[in-house]
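Supplementary notes for students who missed Thursday's class. We covered one full example, reproduced here. Read the sequence, then the structure, then the short commentary at the end.
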Amino acid sequence: MLMVAPVREDRRVTASGASRQGLAQVHETRSVIPAVTHVDYSARIQTVDEERNPRLHGLLTAFDQLTGCPVMITHQL
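Structure (token representation):
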């Protein structure tokens, strides 16, 4: 399911220094998952259901256990 949700506060990074304006804002690191964190600290997420996609769910579970981060960015050709 595709949805928009706020990035959890414990995963956010506080910006240091003066706040940037315009397009420069896009390049600020806002969280430990910067590739998916928008300027307003929201993120578009897609959930993975173990029943419907057990292989991908297992991969994400193992990745979370190894890294402490249950998020993976993939590219489908």
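Commentary. The helical segments are 54-67. The longest helix spans residues 54-67. If anything here is unclear, bring it to office hours.
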